[in-house]
Amino acid sequence: MTTEGPEITPTEHRRFTRSAFLKGGGALIVVIGLPAAVWGFSRDGAEVPTSWPETLDPSSLDSWLAIRSDGTVTAFTGKTELGQGNRTALSQIVAEELDVPFDRIEMVMGDTATCVDQGSTVGSRTIALAGPQLRQAAAEGRRALLALAATHLDVPAGRLRVEDGVVEVTGDASRRVSYGDLVGDRLLGVTVPVKGDGAGFALELGGAEPKRASEYTIVGRSVPRVDIPPKVTGEHYYIQDVRVPDMLHGRVIRPPALGSQLLSHGEPSHGARVVRRKNFLGVVAEREWDAIRAARDLEVKWSDWAGLPAMDEIYSYVRETPSLEDKVVASTGDAAKALASASRRLEASYTTAVQTHGSIGPSCAVADWQDRRLVVWSGTQNPHWMRRDLALLMAMPEDEIVVERLEA
Fold first, then answer.
1. Same structural domain, 65 and 92
2. How far apart are CA 57 and CA 36, in angstroms?
């Protein structure tokens, strides 16, 4: 079988492994919550590990930051970019705490193999919850770099200042060293206290004191969104651009109504094959257009089901449907008493169009199954939850599954 079009593997989405990162020129890795003994470090940082775990245990919080020998910084977050500018804003936070230029920050988002589980990207809470986590990790990274620079320059850390990723002695600009030169071909493990359950929304990091808001020079300022230019020029990498060797294209054939049961189906056309698992029906083909036509032309018989209300009865249906749970979020005063004593009372009923919190276009995902290991590219808002669900669906261990979040 052949694939359609070239195999696309841009730099942003190549498999990132820490052993490959080490071979690429060295980095400072800030490790949250793991004892130094795990990495083979002595307390003075003299020993350097020669290998890295290739998968992350979300509850143990692996690496957050990687500083390359050329001074660029890669930050890892379990959050995703949904169009609100999370990639840009989180990059600002990391750049601010590390005192590096904004354009030197690269953000890896929503990759279960390299990113900590920080919970799902929902409720407009990414900056409020994930922001402090990345800020704390970056602050700890800056403190570690200053300690390394103090040894290198033979001065107390309190006499050092940082600007654009370069550490220099206050009052003597000739004595200076860049983050990249400090790291060289070395790796340095740093641990900081972890509060909460070690994953998701409840995760809190301790350690170094972050900057005061009055010291900000990057956070709080308007910067161009990093994701907009490639989307405008057509260079942005979507799930639909992913190609893997011998890839098949699939289409799901959906029932006409909720509760319909699959009774029978005919033979597929255009060289496609039918996939049926109980009430699930789909087709696969070597070419996408063949899968589309096969799904369109396949003869399928479903049972009837009349469980949905008529369109002109939707609002009364919703009003009459019992609530599963009534929860009082806040209660102030006595509303019933106030209404009863009101001199004038107005009553009105308002309706709004029914809306669905879902995609305006068809969702897409790509899966690559090799040697009992599964890599899935998905537009999910919660890659780590998806990995857990896939482990249940496929009856396989989570550590054999990787979910990489791409925009779809």
1. yes
2. 16
The alpha helices in 264-362, defined as continuous H runs, are 288-297, 314-320, 335-340
Chain segment 369-392, per-residue pLDDT in tens: 988 889 999 999 999 999 999 999
Contact 74, 83 (CB under 8 A): no
Residues 68 and 192 grouped into a single domain: yes
Q: Which of 169, 199, 233 is the last residue of a domain?
A: 233
312 lies in a domain?
A: no
H or E, element range at 7: none
Beta bridge partner(s), residue 74: 66, 106
Q: What is the pLDDT of residues 64-94, one digit of tens each?
A: 888 888 899 989 999 999 889 999 999 999 9
Domain containing residue 118: 11-233
Which token pair is 333? 């005063």
Q: What is the spatial distance between Cα 351 and Cα 222, in angstroms, rounded to a whole number?
A: 38
Same-domain pairing of 96 and 202: yes
In this structure, the answer to whether residues 223 and 298 fall within a common structural domain is: no
Residues 117 and 256 in one domain: no
DSSP 135-170: HHHHHHHHHHHHHHHHHHHTS-GGGEEEETTEEEET
Q: Kindly report the CATH number assigned to the domain that includes residue 124.
A: 3.30.365.10
CA angle 247, 249, 250 (to 5 degrees): 135
Residues 279 and 388 in one domain: yes
Residues 213, 274, single domain; the answer is no
Q: What stretch of H or E contains 20?
A: helix 18-23
pLDDT in tens, 162-196: 999 999 999 998 999 999 998 865 655 677 677 76
Residue range 312-327: mean pLDDT, rounded? 89
Q: How many residues are given for the chain?
A: 408
Query: Across-strand partners of 378?
Result: 365, 405
Q: What is the DSSP letter of 265?
A: E
The answer to whether residue 145 sits within a structural domain is yes
Binned at pLDDT 50, 70 and 90, residue 6 comes out as: very low
Supply the pTM of this predicted model. Answer: 0.78
